Amino acid sequence: MAKLVYGMVTSLDGYAVPADGDLGAGAEDEEVHTYIGDLFRDLGTYLYGRRMYETMVFWETAHAEPEAPPHIVQYARDWQAAEKVVYSTTLESVSSERTRIERTFDPGAVRRLKDESEQDLSVDGPTLAAQAIAAGLVDEYHLFITTSVVGGGTRFFPDGVRLDLDLVGTRAFAGGLIHAHYRTR
Predict the structure, then answer these.
(1) Could you say which of 3.40.630.30, 3.30.1370.10, 3.40.430.10, 1.10.1410.10 is the CATH number of the domain covering 4-173+180-184?
(2) Distance of CA 80 to the CA centre of its chain
(3) Where are the domains of the chain?
(4) At the N or C end, where does the chain have fewer CB atoms within 10 A?
(5) pLDDT, tens digit only, all 185 positions of the chain
(6) What is the 3-state secondary structure (H, E, C) of the chain?
(7) Distance CA 120, CA 128 (A)
């Protein structure tokens, strides 16, 4: 059975999407980007909401940019090789290969996908992840914590859900970003 993992850059005060501005420096650093690429290279399927998909579809053509460094090309190739499921009631079509649209998030269907998959899956974006967390589907969490406090926005973890987690490991980067990896107890 495959695991469902949730990982995102988050502010020091726990926001994955800030109300205003950005999450601060750190995630765009080559060392961090390479680390994230290596960490998630073997994912077989990405589960996205519409907004996250529209952000990530950049990777469908990123490898073709003339100035793209090797770590960007590698991440693009890995992203292209994975299946993508986009949960949206408004998206009419997708612009990436190996991608399908589902109109509703069905926890039972995701459980079956986990059971049938040989490779781990990722749920991306705090809104969709909140549904997966509430349904008890997420097995691992990867927080990439910046040094910024943003004061508001959409939290990495949803309100109203209790989780007891085991710390698997941490890594600090020169620019101040910290990776914290947790597993569901």
Answers:
(1) 3.40.430.10
(2) 15
(3) 4-173+180-184
(4) C
(5) 999 999 999 999 999 999 998 888 766 789 999 999 999 999 999 999 999 999 999 999 999 888 999 999 999 999 999 999 999 999 999 999 999 999 999 999 999 999 999 999 999 999 999 999 999 999 999 999 999 999 999 999 999 999 999 999 999 999 999 999 999 99
(6) CCCEEEEEEECCCCEEEECCCCCCCCCCCHHHHHHHHHHHCCCCEEEEEHHHHHHHHHHHCHHHCCCCCHHHHHHHHHHHHCEEEEECCCCCCCCCCCEEEECCCCHHHHHHHHHHCCCCEEEECHHHHHHHHHCCCCCEEEEEECCCCCCCEEECCCCCCCCCEEEEEEEECCCCCEEEEEEEC
(7) 17
Question: On the CB side of 145, how many CA atoms lie within 13 Å of its CA?
Answer: 13
The tokens 């990896």 sit on which residue?
181
* pTM score above 0.90: yes
How long a stretch of residues is the chain?
185
